[in-house]
Amino acid sequence: MFASKRLGKELQKAQKGLPPGISLVKADDFKEWHMDIKVLDNNPLYQNQTYRLQFRFTTQYPIEAPEVTFLELKQPPATEPIPSQKAPVPATNGTSSSYRPIPIHPHIYSNGFICLDLLGSAGWSPVQSVESVCMSLQSMLTGNTKNERPPGDEDFVRTNAITGKRPKEIGWWYHNDGV
User: Fold this and answer.
1) Which residues contact 159 (CB under 8 A, 6 or more apart)?
2) In sequence order, what E strands does 100-139 have?
3) DSSP assignment, residue 73?
4) Nearest CA to 107 among 131, 143, 77, 76?
């Protein structure tokens, strides 16, 4: 019940307005939300890109951190809705603003898992929110200069596909704050 009350307040605030580069995409319930974030500076690694985040909440939120992952939307839809129109219009030149890659970053695995102490039990605080997590991830991307995945990304993703562990079930080792 506490999670629903807190998320209800966060949703009301988000619907009134979010910081630049952050938008609410989906919040149909208090179990899963989707947010889009953009890096607003001129970092060439992320310029003109929008990234989709998936937030999954337990009934223990905000005492317990949400599970946050990047989602990749590979296949652009044949049509895109235009907010001011009810009917969808065709996507232009085979691409769509709906395409969302997983950002390349030394703390973001190619399956969208994020190694960030803020999202773990040791770094999480109930004063955090969906908005503050989005802002932290924007900042993490803004400050990055390395166009690389974490060491062992391929093995991690392959093993994770077999074990099916969720991000919260992984014993992350936070060892590099320099990126």
Assistant:
1) none
2) none
3) B
4) 143
Segments of the chain assigned E as strands: 22-26, 32-38, 50-56, 67-71, 79-80, 89-90
Residue type, 84: S
Tens-place pLDDT, residues 12-48: 999 999 999 999 999 999 999 999 999 999 899 999 9
Question: One of 7, 35, 115, 116 is an active-site residue; which one?
Answer: 115
Active site residue 115: yes
Structure confidence by residue, pLDDT tens digits, 114-130 = 999 999 888 899 999 99
How many alpha carbons lie under 13 Å from residue 66 in its C-beta half-sphere?
A: 25
Is 133 within 8 Å of 68 (Cβ atoms)? Answer: yes
The per-residue pLDDT for range 42-60, each reduced to its tens digit, is: 899 999 999 999 999 999 9
User: Which residue do the tokens 């691409």 mark?
Assistant: 95
